[in-house]
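CATEGORY: protein folding

GOAL: derive structure tokens
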Amino acid sequence: MTIASASPIPLPVKVPLLTRSGWSGFILAVLLLCVAAPVLNLLLPKDSLFHLSDYAVALLGKIMCYAICALAMDLIWGYTGILSLGHGVFFALGGYAMGMYLMRQIGLEGNYKSALPDFMVFLDWKTLPWHWTFSDSFGATLFLIVAVPGLVAFVFGYFAFRSRIKGVYFSIITQAMTFAAMLLFFRNETGFGGNNGFTDFKRILNIPIATPGMRMSLFVLTSLTLLAFFLLARWLIRSKYGRVLQAVRDAETRVMFSGYSPLGYKLGIWTLSAMMCGVAGALYVPQVGIINPSEMSPANSIEIAIWAAVGGRATLIGPIVGAFVVNGAKSWLTVAYPEFWLYFLGALFIGVTLFLPDGIVGLVKRLKGEGK
């Protein structure tokens, strides 16, 4: 059979693990959170039972940034079959782009009263490195937050996918990429703060960061960004482009024989996924107050894959649920039983892989089916 007479591309018809009411419920929950959180945090007195503490606001904001990364992982792993163990580097690149802007904001307010960041003055640097050129512009920073992770992902993905590297080999080289980037950013001469990274942020757009109003504004912005990315991912997966991605996941060779080139599809979703992680990192930094090379550690990238697996791959909502469940448990266990946290994480991933291949969302779906 020639390619011209081959059967059409297999576009999988998969029953979604969540109904239309489930999508609507998630959207309504995020919108309700955007309204309820400011009321509970800013308008209720601190001694009220329903007051949302600053710690809770920061924790929820941080987990929502992680949820964006989990959603990005679902697009490439759940729907395209590409397991990345290096997405932490894209998260960190977006965070560093925002951190550079925030460091320039405090340059003249620091201990050394210089246009240079404090750590550069301490190291006796005389001028800014070339890659800090546009770091004093908020508009340029917004562009770099998306462009830098996207460019790195595009170049890396182009050569990897063009060479038809996939499966475990692709996962290994992505992990090697993030480890190499971490070692690079640890070096003081690269101009990224070395081991300490960036911290002690004061202002964003000349507005103090450490105020309840600004923290809540960042919280609401993060939740709306998560919702926007969710709607974008949902639209993308329901389109022909998304169906081809699933066909690539299920039968890439047959897709090629049907006249489609998987390279463009895989490269496009891979780059978009990296950009989403970059935005998540940029939102993470002002809320947490620090960015350093440890965010690029291979362990962090593995955790992103665990969030997606625990919640349920190829469901969109599942990875978001997984990010909240795993990081909520981590927040409690690292305080109550810090020595057992890593054992719990490993056991959770093994248990989900063996007994819950569809994750939490798949389990809920099956329980609902059994109850009918």
Summary: Confidence is low (pLDDT under 50) at residues 1-17. Residues 38-301 form one domain.
